[in-house]
């Protein structure tokens, strides 16, 4: 479920499935895309903040139970991929108002589709970032590519390869540039709103033009990398039944750094 509220030009987009750590099911993915597309034609929305409900997690990616229950199947070609999370971000929906991510708790895996398309991230000191794909026999492609636009290559490689064995603390994320501001626990949303209100008060054309300019600086590299993702995933992923077995077998222990 996606909640939205707009006050004084700032829209707050909340992933509201705290019982599922704000994992995104197929319906939620469609809702998010519709929210961003709706903002394109709503002049009252001049900036946005995306966050997760409940405080325990920003988002833990795709809800695997929902995807399996829906009978999701992939094309047989390694050059094609059906990924419901590819369209959950603002840039994927051609939205160029500034979007700030407010992160409390866990942000992992498919959460990076959203974080990768925010202008910047604000996180509480209790936030943690990790990528579980390799642990469960899956290729981290789009997620690692998104983070490679925001973090040093070695940090991205370590996070993507270590899987659930290691989480990046909010402090470490701040030190390597993934996070632009740290707040006390529970303070990320208000800090993000403070920034968003400033952006909403500026001339919209200048703000959106600047957002577009920043993204233009990295779009070519990002686009070329993402074009490689479908067949890397198709060739490297274990079959779904083997992935499910690993989900049940792997320990949940991890090291925070």
Automatic annotation (TrEMBL):
Check the record and name the CDD domains matching this protein: crotonase-like (cd06558)
Q: Name one Pfam family in it.
A: ECH_1
The GO terms this record gives for MF are: catalytic activity
- An annotated GO BP: fatty acid beta-oxidation
Superkingdom of origin: Bacteria
**This protein's name:** Enoyl-CoA hydratase/isomerase family protein
Protein source organism = Streptomyces daliensis
The upper taxonomy is: Bacteria, Bacillati, Actinomycetota, Actinomycetes, Kitasatosporales
């Amino acid at each position: 479920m996606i909640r939205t509220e707009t006050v004084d030009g700032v829209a707050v987009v909340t992933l509201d499935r705290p019982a599922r750590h704000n994992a995104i099911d197929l319906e939620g993915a469609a809702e998010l895309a519709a929210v961003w597309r709706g903002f394109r034609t709503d002049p009252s929305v001049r900036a946005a903040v995306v966050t997760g409900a409940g405080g325990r997690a920003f988002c833990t990616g795709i809800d695997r139970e929902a995807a399996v229950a829906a009978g999701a199947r992939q094309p047989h070609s390694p050059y094609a991929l059906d990924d419901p999370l590819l369209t959950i971000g603002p840039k994927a929906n051609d939205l160029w108002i500034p979007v700030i991510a407010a992160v409390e708790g866990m942000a992992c895996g498919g959460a990076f589709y959203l974080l990768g398309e925010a202008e910047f991230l604000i996180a509480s000191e209790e936030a943690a970032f990790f990528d579980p794909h390799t642990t469960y026999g899956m290729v981290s492609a789009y997620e690692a590519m998104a983070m490679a636009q925001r973090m040093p290559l070695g940090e991205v490689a370590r996070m993507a390869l270590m899987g659930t064995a290691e989480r990046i603390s909010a402090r470490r994320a701040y030190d390597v540039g993934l996070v632009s501001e740290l707040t006390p626990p529970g303070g990320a949303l208000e800090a993000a709103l403070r920034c968003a209100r400033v952006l909403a008060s500026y001339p919209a054309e200048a703000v959106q033009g600047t957002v577009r300019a920043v993204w233009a600086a990295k779009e070519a590299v990002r686009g070329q990398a993402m074009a490689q993702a479908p067949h890397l995933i198709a060739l490297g992923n274990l079959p779904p039944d083997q992935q499910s077995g690993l989900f049940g077998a792997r320990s949940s222990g991890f090291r925070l750094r």
